[in-house]
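ok trying this again, last paste got cut off
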Amino acid sequence: MKPLLPLFMLVASVTSAFAGDTVVGIETNFTSPNGVVERCVRITPIPGGVYSSGDLEDEADYCAVDLYAENVALCPKTWSTSPGMQVYDISGGNYANDRASFMRNACPEGKSAKDLASDVWFKFKPTMNQSGTSGTFSASSLLYYHFSRYFDATVKVPVAVWRSMDAQAHLDEVARAGLALSGRARMNHEGWRALVGADQNPESYQPTDELFTSDRRQIFGVLLNSPGHRYGPSINGTRESGWGKGQNRDFQETPAFLALRSSSPLEQAIAQGLAAGRKVSAINRDLGPDVPPQQMVYWMKELTEIVLFDYIFSQQDRVGNIDYTPYYYWLENGEMTRQKAKKHERGDDTVPQDALLLMRTNLNDNDAGGRVQYANFTKSTQMLEKIRHFNGNTYRQLMALEADLQSQGEIYQWVASSFGLDERQINQVVVNTGLAANILRDTCEAGNLIFDLYPKRYFETGEVTPEQISCNGL
């Protein structure tokens, strides 16, 4: 096991005072009706990250939206557990460019308000960690987005940008309505109660720097759009054992996770995972009659990425919050091709008859990581220690990341300067990355880690010869 640097050495280079709005990137400014200059920041890319043209276009699109334009409507998110703001495009339809009418008449419809808009621009999610609320930390979504691009992840993590908003405008246009409309959603309602109080008196929210800019005139959060459909117990687990460690252990009894725990070759591990998982009736029903091995290989790789990210960022609210998007996959001239499915059952005549309908995982709900106060259930239930199958590229990137963070290299400096994190939060990323690397390195050195999770190669050839990798990641 490689030793970790002492705490005092890890934070030695972080000398600036903590302020959550000290983010770094391409900045766009807007002025609220109250004359407050708001900021939208596209965080500087992580060194070595792989960003698609779509990622960069989404970032630019998000930071091009003026929250007060006549074709933009703001509605409180009054469902689920955490408060937020839905931002709608109302350039067309019955409410075309009639912002006030949409917000007065459509917003009370809750989720159905989107059906009255031309489109959904994105949602604005601020930090919220007060008594009776659901844990939410806005920097967490930014960390997941950028680190997923460093690892060139298979699992889809949504684009996120940093955004501030005039607190008085937030109170007048969104927060008071959120409090009034959220009465039946207890944690959501308490979140809106806290936001109303904070908009009126920033110091009522502690720590204030996690929600307010340094001038205390604006709250801040992230903009993101995260469509997807919620997995059932076949991926999210039965959750029969209750919140916390219980449901995280249930999560490890799903077919793909059981396959990851098997030391057998890939094909046998897949069969073993499916057979064991199907013994649970709820999982068996959710899986349906047939799960192709190609699906299992995708799931297995996606789960290793989820577990790794959640370990590093101390995510406390993953189980039950994993989504998917259905795609058709087939081969053309030996190359894998895919097309987004229009529905969840077969029947699309625009794809070959032998195309496979596969679920691809979306990691959308990433807002309960990053804070030292959160419970790291991935760590406490020893998920990484149980993994026996991995992807070689992910492993090499992890070892390189560990080396950089331990030596306070360019990625360390990027983490320390880009997100407005405090010293303890930066240190948590460094320490958890080192612990994760040590766990997987020890498994590798014991001869128990098989580098065979290459979904595209498996789809194209029907088999994967395990890659031989130095346990040092070289």
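PB: full thing came through this time. The two ends are 16 Å apart (CA to CA).
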